[in-house]
Prior knowledge:
Layout: E1 4-11, H1 19-22, E2 30-31, E3 41-45, E4 49-50, E5 55-62, E6 66-67, E7 73-79, H2 93-96, E8 97-100, E9 111-116, E10 122-132, E11 135-136, E12 138-142, E13 147-153, E14 156-158, E15 163-164, E16 168-175, E17 181-188, E18 197-198, E19 201-204, E20 207-211, E21 217-226, E22 238-241, E23 247-248, E24 253-262, E25 265-270, E26 280-281, E27 287-291, E28 299-301, E29 315-316, E30 321-330, E31 333-342, E32 347-350, E33 363-367, E34 388-395, E35 400-401, E36 407-415, E37 420-427
Parallel strand pairs: 12-21, 25-33
Antiparallel strand pairs: 1-10, 2-4, 3-5, 5-9, 6-10, 7-10, 8-9, 11-15, 13-14, 13-16, 16-20, 17-18, 17-21, 19-20, 21-28, 22-27, 23-26, 24-25, 24-27, 29-32, 30-31, 30-32, 31-33, 34-35, 34-36, 36-37
Amino acid sequence: MGLRVTLIVLISFSTLAMEAQTGDNNAQPCPVEVSSDIVHGTVTVDKTEAAAGETVTITVTPAYHYAATSSDVNIELTIDPGHSRAPRRAPSVGEIFHPVGDARATHDFPATYTFAMPEYPYCVSISANFTSLPTHSAIWRQVNTGHNLIMSTSNGTYWGDGIPEGALVTVTITMTKPEDFFVDGIRVADLYNRDIFVEITDMGNGVYTFIMPDVDVFVRGIEKAYLHGVRFDANNHWATYYGDYCLNVPDGVLGYVVTGVTGNEVQIEELLSDGDDPPFIPRRMGVLLYSETPMDEVTTVESNRASWDYTSMLKGSLEDTEITSGYVLYGDKFILSRTGTLPAHRCYLPLDSVTTSASAPRVLKIRRPGEEIVTGIEEVITTGATDVASVKYVSITGAVSDRPFSGVNVMVITRADGTTENHKMVKP
């Protein structure tokens, strides 16, 4: 239970002694007074006296850590029984009292109320019950480096502890690389509601505001993330990825996990959106990424979510890894490799996940759900007998050299007229 403090605002009206003689109900305006005994807040009025029918505006501003709603404001009307024209009943509070909005009054957001001065001389007593607010913590979760945080409220600067519910919190973020930074929201840190977000307002220049909820929260600022080693161009619509953070699937890209192999085809399942949240790449899970359009740079942001709803047969590493007996993506197919170096953040399909037979297929094609098999680089593309300008060898991991690599290579012949032809070859 919060501490409840009663405020009394007394609006006194002088008995109009001359009214009976003159017959004029509105001969004298009635004074409007505010009690001098107010604690834990302030109450102000827009005028010190008002005639019958005039509107009086009351502004209620609780002290820091206190609040009040319109239901906490009570008005008591008392008729002057000695007046010759006193009515039989006092008007109801609803007839004269009108809250402007129904928001709770806090230190940051005072509440405004109005009433119409009655026609007859009444004593009007206004009381307000102020409740002490619980305090909470706003925790800064600095997911990546490169930025700093300052949190403040209108009552001063705080580092997260003791911010009352309903307070306006201002978050100022300074960044070493503003172009590489996103703020994706204020996330509730309550144990059972970790996916609930508090609305945040971008004020510009790295300043954001939100209203402190009735639970602890943490402020999450996110820098852009770059998918290591992932590049899509006109001839490379597919890529594999393995990382240490949950990342949103970038715009223009589809993400898949490998769920099985049937014959010489890889079966895949798409990473799907969850409500308004974009699909995401789970941390430390091998995935396939597909892009219809060329992209020189693929960027994303760290995902707010973590889920193990997906499983994938792809294996990956955060560092360069020597592999044996596995399938490595080349172009839009997985090609069997008996040995080789897998670059960091890339994936391969272990041979034992497909078959242990010596007659394992050399090539595994990728079938996207609901679509035909995606065809890849042809075995040989012949362009004629023009003089050869250069010859390059591309390994199944994408490395390029003037000399062939051990295992499967694609020999790229560039002729003097600019045309190319590709030949697959295996070096023992």
